[in-house]
Specification:
Blueprint lengths: L7 H14 L17 H19 L2 H7 L8 H28 L6 H30 L8 H11 L25 H16 L6 H21 L4 H26 L7 H16 L6 H16 L11 H8 L1 H16 L2 H7 L3 H41 L1
Helix pairs in contact: 1-12, 1-15, 2-4, 2-12, 2-13, 4-7, 4-9, 4-11, 5-13, 5-15, 8-9, 9-11, 10-11, 13-15
């Protein structure tokens, strides 16, 4: 066993499944009609969040030694983390585009944006509060910048990931306290904002299909044959991923594909995941996105991956996936600031994986607490406000 072995993550995941079964996490019931929740997708979310955590955990040694993450030396973990993030994006586009298709492009937009705000903001602001707290403790509660500059920094952080995140109080790489995961939120908000002007494309199956295929063709051409800066290249890759999710929703909506429980489909899903992990060439990002889309299509159509995705522990894990994703860096930072534990972790690979197990267990407990005390109450408050206003 080495620091970068893949198989220990299976045992850590099994333990976390057992742990969360004993934690108070309600499983949302499936509803009928346009608000249907696909249980397999809900179950998949938790494993995607853990995939990101395990990918970041590979930087544990570097964090202890250099107080920062370095490029992941394990290509398998890098592919795993990339797949997880892009599938998160696809799930977002798939679910919201499906809703638009079901309603022929119509939506209650004011309520929609308010629900998104109260869904994402409370936990995010808690994370920002913890980041500021850590920074101020590290700096001895002394300001190293002007008050105006400090206020500007805090306000930038409170903007839900939309604005660039400056270093708080001159603390180098403050964003890495959260493992830099907030970069995905700006793309989430961008997609939410684009849903309104693009909604007329969801008024019919044919219009949606032509639009998605045309957009994929344009984005692929720009990626392959036109030079763009790395920032815009990342944007194109992410929007390509969103569009593949929309295409999955379009095809699924038209043909109402509901795959029965079939081990063969689960085998196909497993082979697709393996293919994604083996595709390493950066020039094949578009191919990977297509493979992600096929995985999502299988899962959204009813494949539960041999029953794993609909297992109650998986559904509970999925319910707290946002909490796991956003709070992972805080828990890692807090545990690793205990110096004896940091030294213990790098003493041997066995110690390292024991620390990963410990940190993930603590993370799971805090994720459940944050879900029950922050995320769910925030959603409920948002629903009450929407009910009062509309």
């Amino acid at each position: 066993m080495t620091y970068f072995s893949l198989w220990p993550t299976f045992f850590v995941t099994l333990f976390l499944l057992v742990l969360i079964m004993y934690l108070p996490v309600p499983i949302k019931k499936i509803e009928s009609g346009t608000h249907i929740r696909y249980r397999s997708i809900d179950g998949m979310r938790g494993y995607l969040a853990l995939a990101v955590v395990f990918t970041h955990s590979q930087g544990l040694y570097a964090i202890i030694r250099f107080n920062r993450l370095i490029e992941n030396p394990s290509s398998m973990y890098s592919q795993l983390g990339t797949m997880a993030v892009h599938l998160f994006f696809m799930i977002t586009s798939y679910l919201f585009w499906t809703k638009l298709l079901n309603n022929q492009g119509k939506n209650e937009w004011k309520q929609f944006y308010l629900r998104r705000l109260f869904r994402l903001a409370p936990l995010y602001w808690l994370a920002v509060f913890c980041v500021v707290l850590i920074v101020m403790i590290e700096s001895g509660w002394q300001l190293k910048v002007s008050v105006n500059r400090f206020v500007f920094q805090i306000m930038s952080w409170l903007a839900l990931g939309v604005l660039p995140l400056p270093d708080i109080n001159n603390r180098y790489a403050s964003f890495m306290i959260l493992f830099g995961v907030t970069w995905t939120l700006k793309y989430e908000w961008f997609y939410y904002c684009m849903l309104f002007p693009l909604s007329f494309m969801a008024r019919s199956f044919l219009r949606s299909l032509i639009f998605c295929l045309f957009l994929l063709f344009i984005l692929y051409g720009l990626d392959q044959y036109v030079y763009v800066s790395p920032t815009y290249k990342q944007f194109m890759h992410v929007f390509f991923t969103f569009t593949v999710g929309m295409l999955c929703a379009t095809v699924h909506h038209r043909y109402a594909c509901r795959i029965k429980l079939n081990p063969l489909i689960s085998c196909i899903t497993a082979l697709l995941i393996l293919a994604v992990l083996l595709v390493k060439a950066e020039s094949l990002d578009s191919l990977r996105s297509i493979l992600y889309g096929l995985i999502l299509f299988c899962v959204a159509s009813g494949d539960n991956f041999f029953g794993v995705l609909t297992f109650p522990g998986s559904l509970k894990l999925g319910a707290v996936s946002y909490d796991i994703y956003l709070l992972q860096g805080l828990v890692f930072q807090t545990v690793l600031n205990i110096k004896p534990l940091g030294g213990f972790a790098v003493a041997s690979p066995y110690n390292y994986w024991l620390m990963v197990w410990l940190i993930c267990s603590v993370l799971m407990v805090f994720a459940v607490l944050a879900h029950r005390l922050i995320e769910k109450p925030g959603i409920n408050i948002g629903n009450k406000i929407i009910k009062e206003l509309f």
